[in-house]
Amino acid sequence: MWRTEPWLKAEVPGTKKARVLEKPGLAASMLKRAGRVLMIVGHRVSEALSSRPVSDYVADIAEALNAHIATTSLAYRSFRERGLTVAWLSPIEAAHRVTDPDWMGLDGKGCYKAVVVMGLPYYMSWLIFSGLKNFAMNVRTVSLDRFYQPHASWSLRNLTTEEWEKFLDELVEKLKA
Amino acid sequence: MSRKDLYVRVKEAATRLGVLKDVEIAVDRILYEEYEEPMGPTPMPSIKDLRSWDLTLLKRYKPFYMPFCELCCLCTFGKCDLSMGKRGACGLDMAGQQSRIVLLACCIGAATHAGHAKHLVEYLIERYGRDCPIDMGEGVGVEAPITRLVTGIRPRTLRDLEDVLEYVSNQIVHLLSCTHTGQEGSALDFESKVLHAGMVDHVAMEVADIAQISAMGFPKSDPDAPLVDLGLGTIDKSKPVIMVVGHNVPSAACIVDYLVEHGLLGQVEATGLCCTAHDVTRYNPKAAKIVGPISWQIRYIRTGIPDVVVVDEQCVRTNLIEEAEKIGAAFIATSEKNCQGLRDRTDDPVDDIVRDLIEGVEKAVLIFEPEKVGEVAVRVAMALAPKRRSYKESKASRERIIEYAKQCRRCMNCVRACPNNLPVMDAVNAAAKGDLKPLAELYEHCIGCLRCESACIADLPIHSLIVWAADERFRDEAFKVRSGRGAIKDTEIRAVGGPIVFGEIPGVVAFVGCANYAYGGRDIYEMAEEFAKRRYIVVASGCAAMTIGMYRDEEGKTLYERFPGAFDAGAVINVGSCVSNPHISGAAVKIANIFARRPLRANYEEIADYVLNRVGAVGVAWGAMSQKAASIASGFWRLGVPVIVGPHGSKYRRALLGRKDREEDWYVYDARTGKRVYGGPAPEHLFYMAENKEEAMVMIAKLCMRPSDTTKGRAIKLSHYIDLYRRYYGELPDDIHLFVRTLADIPITMKEEILAYLKEKGWKERPIPDPTLLPRLIRRRV
């Protein structure tokens, strides 16, 4: 049960909670079908998992989905070096723009159909998802962090670091396939 | 009480109307005394009077709501689910509800400062008389810039402050009433009211601080205010120790008075936390010491060092009474806002109260009379200290920590309760195996909220384990902070007004607010140091002012020892406690008034327009926590000063963000011609949440830009912005073309690189306007 509760115990959501992404394969196919994707990325993606930093997974996912990245984290440089479409845009600012149906995205080619969030403090993601849930209702939101985010449309369960790493490895593999 | 300023009695007078007999004329108060400046357009504005200015701001800086709660439970219609486009039974939608809650928070904040000011002014009038003059020191002609700006009153004595507070109280009543079911329905109008609450909050704070500065002899706009001790390591625990916590200083001041009057100075340690500590050291810098910010309350009390704990109001941990009991300390509550369920002993003889506390007949008492608190606290501390020696010894034995840590049941509740998601359980488990380092490392990041202990199923004193593991560091904390100097002198404003408005001093950065830091206090120290080194004017207040003093450079000096305290480039200034914040907003107002000669009196809109467009100031509330912090911030917004908060600030649930990608949002009037011209996204945001320190640093530099910057000033500001951005992100920012107006704006050392970038963007020169958002300020129409 605790696996699908908000990770921070007091961050209780409203009446609609995120659906759980159980399997990397399903997550991959859902993301592939999502259309234009914006990834909102926080500074915690610089943290290292056993084989590589989380920012590497972000870059792999963005590359596979042709997704754009909004971030102010120090991983910005590495995303640029990977040739990804990345903007120095704060998480809150990025989410604010997503709520504007007339915003044409980082490349000016159209609005986003889905937002993926990774690497922010838990409560900040929680609030951003809440903002998007209520003010960008046509946008699908996905949390790929290792803690359950109730305000997202889709979220992982609360996972151990090892489980999360395994999930991300498989997700990237499926996305690249 | 009737206060008659004019009384005429006529026994008999022959007039053209007839003969008057026994006529008495009494004028209660002449509220608007004439002084050299004529009254402006908005004296004592009501909610509606500045609404058009608010809507102008809100059109550019749009609210982005992030509902912290999707339900409303404020009336019996509810709970109502407002999520995803639904409306509550009263008809309110989610945006309306979120802005309503923000207004509620700001009303709480403003009421708290107003209540504080009211108590303080009443006390000071009782002690020093209604005619006690307002005296902000030499070189200060504009003694109360915010009060003059908002109310049109120039306060000369304490009695004038009562009138000002009456206005403030009225406004708060009206604002609070707007949050009732079935009142306001528009999110934007709620936001306008939020700004109004913030504005009156700054008036209330200013009243509180100028009253205590004038009557209690605090430093009067003194750039050389003394350095005072900060940190646990400055306290001599062999002496009786009194701990004061809160914001309203009279009780703490009376403790110091008693020590001085009875020759006990140096024999008893008067120590404090939060703003009462700031203010008691402003009252007597030699008699009191600051332990630390609000988040140090529990770690300090659990050392067992305090013999007596005295609490007044605001930000006091509400179960300190239990913590005091655990260490055998006496507890004295002193404010009617915080009675703690205690018996009122105000009218009892001091000897009886002292005896009861020493003998443990009562462990805690409530005393409303500050002088009595002073005597009781000192006498009890002196009597208890010898009996409490065992409590004061360090409990931080390695064996004890390990013994506790072994009881951990690995339920993870501590981590899931921690607002900063600290790896508490792993640290406790490492300690169980004998490695205390991970536990000690949590010390810097712990905000002392005790949620971990509350959640622990094994009832472990987790916070204490963290502090014990870092015992040496904690006990060695010994720093210097400059005592709160109060206002900025008019003479200082005259000297720096031009360089600030023209941009040659790149900005004024104010580090304010609480200590709810997401990643520890070092971030805010590093930010303050960075901008002081870059010769911005760095000002600080409240807990933030303490935090930036709690780190040293390689020579062992704190920022206050390294940088001067005058309001000038490269300064690090502590203005004082929370209620000293209007000296910061007041400095911006004074720049408009003293330097630019804009009329001040009841002329809010014009001054705010000036500040927004010309004064490169930004507030940083990196650990903002309270409702007071919310209302303080909104007072800055209405005045045109943007505020950045740290990650926890996102829980204020609403940002006010500009859109630099929408060119049409950034047009201003050129006051010289009346033409609408592009002024650029400056300042880009009004209320911004930064996720990390690097982002905040870049944004601080960016938000200091203003449309009116001269080319030299803009070049200086751009060079800081670009330099910081490049340091962290390795390239030029992608929006330079929005901030370069003419070729002369380009920093000379980066010219080639920036020119190449501008060419790529198809940039064209544009005029530098004399910017205003107010059509009535256009001098000539073309």
What average pLDDT do the residues of chain A reach? 96
Biggest sheet features of chain A:
7 strands, parallel
The helix content of chain A, as a percent range, equals 25-40%
Order of helices and strands of chain A: EHEHEHEHEHEEH
Strand order of the largest sheet of chain A: 1-7-6-5-2-3-4
Number of beta-strand segments of chain B: 23
Of all chain pairs, the largest interface belongs to: A-B, 41 and 49 residues
Unreliable parts of chain B: none
Structure overview:
- The complex is a heterodimer of chains A (177) and B (782).
- Chain A is of the alpha/beta class.
- Chain A has helices at 24-33, 54-65, 76-81, 91-98, 122-135, 161-176, and strands at residues 19-20, 37-41, 68-71, 86-88, 114-118, 140-143, 154-155.
- Chain A has a 7-stranded parallel sheet, sandwiched between helices.
- In chain A, α1 crosses α6 (161-176), α2 packs parallel to α6 (161-176) and α4 packs parallel to α5 (122-135).
- Chain A is globular.
- Chain B is an alpha/beta fold and 782 residues long.
- Helices cover 42% and strands 13% of the residues of chain B.
- Chain B contains 30 helices and 23 strands.
- An 8-stranded mixed sheet of chain B has the order 3-19-22-18-17-14-15-16, sandwiched between helices. In chain B, strands 9-8-7-10-11-12 form a 6-stranded parallel sheet, with helices on both faces.
- In chain B, β14 (508-511), α21 (522-533) and β15 form a beta-alpha-beta unit.
- Chain B is globular and about 80 Å long.
- Chains A and B meet through α3, α4 and α5 of A and β3, α14, β22, α27 and α28 of B.
